[in-house]
Structure formats: structure tokens, C-alpha cells
Design brief:
It is built from twelve helices and twelve strands. It has helices at 5-8, 14-40, 45-85, 100-133, 152-158, 162-165, 176-180, 220-261, 270-299, 311-321, 341-359, 409-419; strands at residues 137-141, 147-150, 185-190, 195-207, 210-219, 307-310, 328-329, 336-339, 366-373, 376-383, 423-428, 435-442. A hairpin with a 2-residue loop joins strand 9 (366-373) and strand 10 (376-383).
Length: 444
């Protein structure tokens, strides 16, 4: 739709009126010459030539004037369009001229293109900063498998600068096998800048109507090493706390006993004091030994040796091992699973021991049962005890709420369950007071 108000009202725009008027003015000298001939008759030959030359010169001058009036606004319009084509959106035309409607549309187009460029530049800067901040290596390939974009992490992985990498084919930089391999795989690979375990992800892209590929490489080895470092720090804090507490007590008692024995004369009850101090030192050393033995048991768990076993036979056998009270077993259908029988039995014994110790003070009962749920086999132990303690650290190694507890029972259960690709959970019972311990294993 035209934007000129004159055209919308049925009038000719200013530029068209100017062209039409100029066309009449170009014909005006010839018309005047014809009027002269009609009014005075045909003059002599010399006067006819003079009249023709005058008409020709006047027509040429008016045509030149009309040419400038028509071409110069078009030059302005062409200059604005060329600026837009070259990406210069800062030029503007005067909207009050003869091409006011067209200039208005071009100025509006320039404003819109300039705004879109600013938005595109802001988005590009944000994308660039995001890619630069990523630890993952990002590669973008075009339809010819040539590299078109990479971030600083990708440059470090390839140990190549940006200029030497862009435009290279995937096989030239050693990434063709990763693009052709399965998606979301974790492999061990050696890149020029780093080697280790990497997660490989790739997906198709579309750019300018052509296909491309996005390749993302995550260094999972670095994440695992960071988790391992944090685990060692937590372990050293726990070990340091326990060992320092024990050694401080032993050191203090040893100093006290040394002072007691060095007295002259000896006190009458020095034997009893010495014997009591040595007993305390022995008890503290024995407790420290139990603590370190518990950690060794937790850290030295071997990989499970899986074989097929039936929970309908395993669960009642574990229940019969408990002598402090009778454990009820809910009958169920045979349910075969792939598991290490020794490790699974040890995990169930630990869960059952916690349920027994929670139910004995209240005279409650303990029930064991098994069932299948989807692709999982569930083993549940229900007790009538006081319920779960208010803590989120029940599965944290060496954390315990029981006097004299080692704090490795539940941690060992979770380690065994996760080694079997399963899990363990503790929750409050819905039907009565007490707790529900659930250990699940995959059926497939």
C-alpha cells in the first residue's frame, strides 16, 4: 500500500506532478514556435532557421532543467538504498522533498534494520561471552564438514589458534570420527591439548537453508578429578578430627601419668591411677582402631560378582539370622535378580540390624518383604520404632545417631546398592509409626 497521503486522497504525489509539469515545459518552446507561425505566417527562410534554432535551444535548456529535477532526487534515493545495501543504516533522507513518501519508507526501513543490527550484535556478544565462559568445547561445522565456529575451550583442546582452525574440514583436525560416532557417548580420547575421558554430543543444524553439525565435547575426567579431590578433603577432615581427638586424649593422659610416676615419694594410690589411665588410653586406642577398621571396610569393597539369585529364598534366610527377636517375612512370588549374594546379604543385615535396634526398646515388630515395581525389584524392611531421626546425613560415612555407632552401616548399604546399579532409601511409614527401609535393584 502507498504511504503518500496525496496518493491515498486521489491526488498525484509531488514527484509525479513535477515530472508531468516538466514534460509540458519541455514541449513549451515548440508550442510557442507553432503559435508564432500560425499568427504571423511563414516568414522568410532565414527567419525560419532562426526560429528553429531558438526553439531547439530553448527545448534543450528546459530538457536539461527537467533532467536535473527528475534525476537528482533519484540519486538521493539510490544513495540511501546503496547505504542500506552496504550496511550503513545511519544515513537519512529529507522527508519533505518531492520523494517524501519513498524517503519516509526508506528511513523507517533504516531505523528497523539498525535496531535489528543492534539486537543481533547484542545477541552475538552475549553468545560469544557464553561460549567463552563454557568449559565444554563447542564446534560448529557447515554442510561441507568445515569448521565455522569454535570457542576458547575448543581452541585449547585442539591446541590451535582460531585462524588456523576455521575453514578446516573435520577430518583435518581429527574430529570426523567423533561426528560419525554415536551421540552422548563417553570415551577415552587423546586430543592435542588434553587426554582423558570425554562426553561426546552432536546434533544437526540448519544455517541459510543448508545442513550443519554441532559438536560439544565435555571433559568428564576433570569433573571426576574435582569430585575426587573434594571427597579426599572431606575424608581427611573426618579422619583428622577423629585421630586428633584420640591423640589429644592419649597425649594428655600420658603426660599426667608421667608426672604421677615422677613424684618422689610416690602417692599411695599411684597404682590405681596409673592402671586407670592406661585403661583409658587402651580404650581410646581400641576405639580409634575400630574407626580405622570401619573405614577400611568401607573403602575396600570389591566389585560385585553378580549371579542369578531368588529374593524369595534370600530374604527369609537373612531374617533367620537375627536372634534377638523374630522377624516376620511376608510371603511373595519368586523374584530372580542379578546380584552378588554376599554383598546383598550384608546390606540387608545392616538394614535389618537398624530396624531391630529401633523396635526393641518399644517392643515393636519388624517385617521384611519383596516385590517388583516396573523394572525394579524392591526389598522393604518395616519397623515399629520411633521413626527416623531428624537429620539429612544418615548416609554420610561415619555419621551416627547411636551411642557407640561406627557410622558406616548405611553408607556401606548405599555403596553396595549403587554398585549393583540400584539404590536405597529411608522414609517414615504411612500406616504406622516407624521407618521403612527400601533397597531396590534393576530387574534387567
Amino acid at each position: 500500500m502507498p504511504t503518500d497521503p496525496a496518493r491515498r486522497s486521489g491526488q498525484l504525489p509531488a514527484f509525479e506532478r513535477r515530472v508531468l509539469l516538466g514534460s509540458w515545459l519541455v514541449a513549451l518552446p515548440a508550442l510557442l514556435g507553432m503559435l508564432v507561425l500560425l499568427s504571423v505566417g511563414v516568414p522568410e527562410r532565414a527567419l525560419c532557421w532562426l526560429l528553429a534554432i531558438a526553439v531547439l535551444l530553448a527545448t534543450a535548456w528546459v530538457a536539461r532543467w527537467q533532467h536535473r529535477r527528475v534525476v537528482y532526487p533519484l540519486y538521493t534515493l539510490a544513495g540511501l538504498l546503496e547505504a542500506l545495501r552496504e550496511g550503513d543504516y545511519s544515513m537519512r533522507g529529507v522527508q519533505g522533498g518531492v520523494l517524501g513518501g519513498a524517503i519516509y519508507d526508506i528511513n523507517a526501513l533504516a531505523d528497523r534494520l539498525q535496531q535489528e543490527r543492534l539486537q543481533f550484535e547484542d545477541a552475538s556478544r552475549l553468545l560469544g561471552k557464553t561460549l567463552a565462559a563454557l568449559d565444554s568445547a563447542v564446534f560448529v561445522f557447515d554442510h561441507d564438514a568445515r569448521l565455522r565456529l569454535l570457542n576458547p575451550a575448543a581452541q585449547q583442546l585442539l591446541r590451535r589458534d582460531r585462524a588456523a582452525s576455521l575453514g578446516r574440514r573435520a577430518d583435518e583436525i581429527g574430529l570426523d570420527a567423533l561426528l560419525a560416532g554415536p551421540n552422548a557417548q563417553v570415551i577415552r580420547h587423546a586430543f592435542p591439548g588434553r587426554s582423558g575421558r570425554f562426553e561426546i554430543r552432536h546434533s544437526p543444524l540448519r544455517n541459510e537453508g543448508r545442513s550443519g553439525q554441532l559438536l560439544v565435547i565435555n571433559d568428564v575426567g576433570r569433573v571426576l578429578r574435582e569430585e575426587e579431590r573434594q571427597a579426599w578433603q572431606r575424608l581427611l577432615r573426618v579422619l583428622g578430627h577423629e585421630v586428633n581427638n584420640s591423640l589429644a586424649s592419649i597425649h594428655s593422659l600420658a603426660g599426667t601419668l608421667a608426672t604421677l610416676i615422677a613424684r618422689e615419694p610416690l602417692a599411695e594410690d599411684w597404682r590405681e591411677d596409673t592402671r586407670g589411665g592406661l585403661q583409658v588410653i587402651g580404650n581410646r586406642a581400641e576405639a580409634l582402631g575400630r574407626f580405622l577398621a570401619g573405614y577400611s571396610k568401607l573403602a575396600a569393597l570389591p566389585p560385585p560378582q553378580k549371579r542369578e539369585l531368588d529374593l524369595a529364598a534370600l530374604v527369609p534366610a537373612v531374617a533367620r539370622l537375627e536372634q534377638r527377636m523374630t522377624v516376620a517375612v511376608e510371603e511373595g512370588a519368586p523374584l530372580p535378580v542379578q546380584a552378588d549374594p554376599d554383598q546383598l546379604e550384608q546390606a540387608l543385615i545392616n538394614l535389618l540390624r537398624n530396624a531391630i535396634e529401633a523396635s526393641l526398646p518399644t517392643g515393636g515388630t519388624v517385617l521384611m518383604r519383596w516385590r517388583s515395581e516396573g523394572e525394579r525389584a524392591l526389598i522393604e524392611i518395616l519397623d515399629d520404632g520411633p521413626g527416623l531421626p531428624g537429620s539429612d546425613n544418615l548416609f554420610v560415612p561415619f555419621f551416627t545417631t547411636k551411642p557407640g555407632g561406627s557410622g558406616i552401616g548405611l553408607a556401606l548399604v548405599r555403596q553396595i546398592a549403587e554398585a549393583h546399579e540400584g539404590g536405597v532409601s529411608l522414609s517414615a511409614r504411612d500406616d504406622a509409626s516407624g521407618a521403612l527401609a527400601t533397597l531396590w535393584l534393576p530387574l534387567s
